[in-house]
Structures are given as C-alpha cells and as structure tokens.
Amino acid sequence: MTGSQVEQLVRETMELTGSAAPEMLDPDAPVLQDSGEGIYLVGLIGGKEVGKSALVNALVGAPITDETSHGPGTETIVAYVHRSRQREAEELLQRRAPEKFRIVPHDQAKLGGQVLLDLPDIDSRFTSHVELTRRMLRHMLFPIWIQSVEKYADVQPQNLLARVAAGNDPKNFLFCLNKADQLPADGSAKELSEDYARRIGRVLSLESPPRVFLISARQPGAFDLPELSRLLSREKTADSLAESRDLANRRHQRSLLSWLVKCDLPGRAARLNRLDDEAAELLSERLGVPLVETTVPAITDNPAYRMVMTDDVFGRRVARWPIVNLLHSLLSPVRILIRENAAAGSFFGGAEALVDAHIKIAGGSVAGRVQSAFGQLNQTDPALAGLYAHRKLWESREAEIAEARLRQEWIETIQRQRQEVLSRLSGKSGIIAPLIRGLLTIGALLWFPFIQPVLHTIHNSHSAFGTVRDIGILAVEVISAESLLHNAIFLVIWYLLIWSLLRWGTRSRVDRLLIRWRSAAYADDSLNLTTRTLAWIDELLEPIRAARQTTDDLARRVEELRSELAAQKSAA
Predict the structure, then answer these.
(1) pTM of the predicted model, to two decimals?
(2) Domain extent for 78
(3) Percentage of residues of the chain with pLDDT beyond 70
C-alpha cells in the first residue's frame, strides 16, 4: 500500500468518524515530503547557542557561516552545495524559503548530491526563524540534531524531534552533543551523552538508545567529530538514498497506522452492527409487521381495487366481442351502482384515494410510528444523531416526508400493477380468436332466430318448399311475435352467459396475478407492495448500514496495512 493510499484511508476515516486530522497531515507540519530529487538535504537542527554554525564551519573546514552567541541568532539558511548542483539547490530553496537563504558553493566532487544546511534556531523568539526551519524539515531527509551539554534536556527540541520522526525514520537521523570540551575529563561527558541518548530513545519509542556523537566544534580533532566528519564527507549512493526514503515512507505509514488504530474502527463497526440489529428489530416491530401483515393485504383485498383492476382488462376484452360489447355498454349504469355500493368509492378517486384510505397503522399515522421508533433509537445510541444529521427522522417533518415517500411508492406500484394487468391479460387478436368470437356472437344471432327454424321446418316437412304458399308459411313461423320473443330471450341469456364467462375468467386471472404480486417471494419488486414496503424500511436504515459497511471496509483495510507493515518489518 502506497503512502497516498494510506493517506486516502486516513481521509476516509476522518470523514466517517468526524475525527480531527493527524497532525502530520497538516500542511504546516514539519513532516518529510521529500520529492526524491537528485540532491538530498543534510541539515543541522538545534536551538540557540548550541554551536550549529561552529559545527558547520568545522565540518566544512572553512568559516562559511557566522557564529552567533548573542542577538537574534541564525536568521537565514546557509547552504553548502557543489557548484554543479548550485542552480538545482537554489531553485528548491527559492520555492521553500524565498530570499531567506545564502548559497556557498564548493568543488568537492565526492559531495556532488549533498546539500549541507545551517538552519535558524528552533527555539528562537522570532516566529519567522522557527517557521523557516520547520518548512525546510519537510524536505530534509537527513537532519542532524545537535544539542549542547547545557541544553540537552530542553523539552522543546524533543517535541519537535517527535513530530519530525512521525514522517521520517530515526535511522536517517544523526544526534550530536556539542561543547564536550566544557566538561571535566572524569567520564561525565560520556555519562551525559548516554543520558541524552536515553531521552531520545524514550521520545522516539526506540528499542535501544541511538548513537550520540560527543563533539566539540572548538576542538575538531577531539572526541567524535572526526568520525562524524568522515561520515558526512561520503556521498550517499542511489541505493542508500532509495533505502532511506523507503524507511521514511514506512515510518510515515506506521505513524498514520497508529492514528488509525486509535480510531478503533473494529470497535466502531461492532457498535454499528449492534445498532443496525436493534434498529432493524424495532422498525420491523413498529412498521414492518403491521404494514406487511395488515395494511398491504387490506389494499390488495379491497373489493373496489380488484373490481377496477378487473374492469380495466374486461373493458378491453369485451370490446372485441360483437353484440356482447353492446350489452356491456347497456349494463354500465348497473355496474357503476354495484361498484359504488361495494367499495364505498375508496378506489374511484384513483390509486391516491385507495392509498390514502389505508396508509395508517392501528388508526395512527405511519409518520408517528417512524418518529417514535427513531426517537427511541436516538435516545439509546447517541451515534445515531451523527448518522442522520441530514435526515432527523425523530422530528415530525422528516417523519412525514418518510411517510410521503411510502405513499408515493405504493401509488406508483399500484399504477404499475394496473398497467401490467392490462398488458398481460388484454390478449392479442390473432386469426382464430376473431373467427370464434364472430361465430359465437353474430353466428348465434343468425342461427337461433333464422337458420335453425328454417332447417327444423325443412327437416320435419314431407314435401319440398316449391310454392309461394309454403315459403310464406315458413316466413310467418320464423318471424312471428312468439318466435321472435322466444329467440330474443334466448339470445339475451346467451350473450349474458358469454359476458359472465368473460367477466369470471378475467376476474380469476386478475386475482391470480394479485396473489402472486402480494407474495414477498415475487421477484419483480416494482409490482410487489410487500417488497416495496420492506425496501422503504431498508431505506430508512440506509445511513446505519452504509456507515457499518464503510467502517467494516476501513477496518479491513487498516488490518491489511498492519499486516503489510509487520511483514516489511520482519523482512528488514
């Protein structure tokens, strides 16, 4: 996992938990932001009068910076750089410390990539001096921490050291205790040096105290200064630079990991899981059970709802039946009267009227149930307020909006059901069906009053109808009032039978569809009032579940980062 990925993980955690950003991500924090350029910075970090300038002069072997034991101290950056890299160093310093630096070029080819910096005091009373050093620490891969025997126990440099070490590995640091010549030659210098090392070890949480170079800038040939000088006079190879930068990056990641661990994401995820379970159980009791087991069946079993669903389809089906469609039109006033008496008009204002007549629980409003449920959850778990900051369902207005959302879901579902019923059951014309419809309607009109009597008379007659008298007698028998009345009554019964069978068949098909759509197991949510209701309840729980899922994912990624860094540490 790269450094940018870890920082993204931190930002996501901040957004989720509302925690303040770790200090090391502050743009002004003195944390390494080394760009991996060709040059690398080695800088002396220390307070006033610890001998930084004297040490630089001793390391270089020439007075390149003024030694100050009084006044404001070092005010600008002094950079000791190879002449071939002077322009590169100047561009970097101009970006980070414009007009606050001075470059001293040299011609030592063995130090072509190293830039040695003398920096302002970190305990200066001038804020601009301190800020200048802090700014350069963001680009300094190899800081040299220098203290004097008088000030080695000062807390301020130790605090800065801890902050710098959050983004850079202590293996890239050097520690010096200057002015060793001021101590008596009785071993107290070594004792002081060991005490300083122990303090640094505690500040940096090291397994063992680091090496501290005991030096005297006034006596360059004494103590550990010759060894320090040899160490700094060797330019670092590309491999060693890459290793140092890798160490710094790992330290940066470990510091961010420590911040992530303190956020206790697994604990937060466990609490959100409990909250999710409690909220789901409470909403199921207050909303799910009464809505799914009582309210939704009351809608789908409503006589007017089923009647109008059937009428929509039946009107289209019967319109294709000649003569029967006329009978259907004649029966319209009767049908309207029956519908109004059967359903008390609850559906005839449309889907809206049907939903408005049923969207209640035990005589109370759905909004009231939503408000009371989330009010209880908010009292038992304060974390709910943060999750629902933009949708406070324990307040009446938001609860009413939630009820309006359910109302709209039901209306849209009922409207889709009506369209689906029409689409599925209206049927297609085809070729054979119109022939059958014509035979059963127009054919019956011709057969029973006319064709059948003629054939019957011919069958019973012993002579052929060759005379006008015979034809007249047959016509009188066929169109007589008694015959026509008898056939008319029969045809009305016949067409009523066809109409009733069509009505019954349509109603049966509609009922089967509505029963399927009422089942929670039906796949198409858009036609199922039950599943739409459950989806609405899930939507109420979405902020909790989204936070839980996000927290689980972040906790998993933090654990992966922990394992990755542990593996890297073991390999090292």
Answers:
(1) 0.71
(2) 30-240
(3) 89
